[in-house]
Amino acid sequence: MKMKFVALAVSAALLTGCNDDTQTVEVIKEVEVAKEIEVVKEVVKEVVKEVPPTPVTSVKNIILMIGDGMGPQQVGLLEEYAQRAPNSVYKSKNNQTALSKFANAGHLGLSLNAPHGPTGSLVTDSACSATQLATGISAGSEMIGLDTQGNKVATILEKAKAMGKATGLVSDTRITHATPAAFASHQPHRSYEDKIAEELISSGNVDVMLSGGARVFLPQDVASNEEVQKQLAELGMPSGVYKKSKRSDNENLVVEAKDQHGYALAFDKTQLMDVEGDKLLGLFANSGMADGIAYKKCQQDNSCTQPSLKEMTIKALDVLSKDEDGFFLMIEGGQIDWAGHANDAGWMLNELLKFDEAVEAVHEWVKDRNDTLVVVTADHETGSFGFSYSNYNTPEAVPLPGDGMGDALYKPKFNFGALSLLDTLYNQEGTFYDIMGDVDGSYNFANSSAEQWQTAITKHTPYTVTLEQAATIHESHETNDDGHPLPHFEDFSDFYVYGTEDFTGKIARVVATQQNVVWGTGTHTAAPVPVYAFGPEGITKQFSTLQHHVDIANKMMAALGVN
Ligand SMILES: [Mg+2]
Ligand SMILES: [Zn+2]
């Protein structure tokens, strides 16, 4: 429209300029022409102003956040809780999650996540999924940083480092666990955590590592070697962090990280706040870090000694953003997945809240910038979780005032779940593992009683179970190699693969009707997972589609200029 107007104005000016009669007329015409030229100039100016700027298609920094096991149903749980729980902790935040801020200000898409390509498979594990997210190529199940043929493949983190950028990995599980490992190590199997630890500290590719998992950094005899214990204590490591080793040699990777590779060390929250330097190794737990429920409780009485996922995120951003060349940072909320495997909805909600706190910290850091791409996604869904309606405790008939009711009472046939159940999930006091630990610390339930299960469930959850229900938990038809009873599932039993740990899935079944919650598996499902992208529009809009995880990696690498 504007262009047409310019053309008309110009031709009008030319026509007027051609008219020549008397001098007076000439002068009047000249004045008019001059006026019209001014108009044309103004219009041209406006048109020039309206030409859109070249879209930004590259960024200096990338922050990738992975909610392990955070499928669409898990995001739904978090959003329902935030928006509609009667006592939602988000009330003071307009009932708005940090995730939803990225959705509103950025782009939201979906991503298929199975092992990619014609030789792939249907369902992924975290190692394969993280490898595909880190490399953009097809990867094999349970492999770390390798292609399907076992070749090492450079990851986005390694490519960023090669460009001179700073790099970081943050997780609330173990730094050697599959998700962080796949960004900076290359191993035939995710279980090689001792080798992964060696690679992480010696490769020189990761500047900041903050997580748990000290046990694979410590010499095999750490539990009995007082000299080593003294050395670690002098470095500031609490005894709970060095209590045992999972190495089969005498290497002390903590000391090596400091002396040979120049890492500053931190082992608790205070040390992390105080530590300085651009290379940082923080190991805050012997194995996994505090779960979401333990974290909620220590926050309430101000007794947390480990840093939270949010605090580790803030520290990593502080350190990495000092690099003028930019950075790549991966942050994982890794225990959403663990709660999903345990079929423990209350724990899972608390993990989602812990993750969303870290998302909030990233949002705060990035919201006014245009040089950073944030991608938040999951590696896969865990547990086949869902709210569901049932015929348990169906609603009473009640009168309604509406003029469409006639003489009828309002009485749905089924129980569609009260919103107060969201608060009940949040208020859970312990995980299903805590319940099992109370009944038997070594998960050997050969001699457990229904009373023990009932007592432990009452202690850690708001749910009441009958002795009859409690007895179904430890009902067992088989034992493992140690002679310990294995949980018995009536159906889908082959999808509960973690032995005695899967008694959690039996607890889930006896509290299910009180939660309006069902689970389909003790492993993962292949549901497409949400992808949130925030940053320059020219980059983020391409995430608003149905893609695959390898595409996410390739889009991130293109944005960083490392294809
Ligand atoms: Mg993980
Ligand atoms: Zn998993």
TrEMBL record:
Pfam families: Alk_phosphatase
Residues the record lists as binding Zn(2+): D68, D337, H341, D379, H380, H524
Cofactor: Zn(2+); Mg(2+)
Note describing how the cofactor binds: Binds 2 Zn(2+) ions. Binds 1 Mg(2+) ion.
Keywords, sorted A to Z: Hydrolase, Magnesium, Metal-binding, Phosphoprotein, Zinc
CDD domains cross-referenced by the UniProt entry: ALP (cd16012)
Coiled coil: none
Signal peptide (from-to): none
Gene3D superfamilies xrefs: Alkaline Phosphatase, subunit A (3.40.720.10)
Keyword check for Phosphoprotein: yes
GO molecular function, a single term: alkaline phosphatase activity
Active site: S126
Sequence positions that bind Mg(2+): D68, H177, T179, E332
Family: Belongs to the alkaline phosphatase family.
Name the UniProt record assigns to this protein: Alkaline phosphatase
Organism whose genome encodes this protein: Pseudoalteromonas luteoviolacea H33
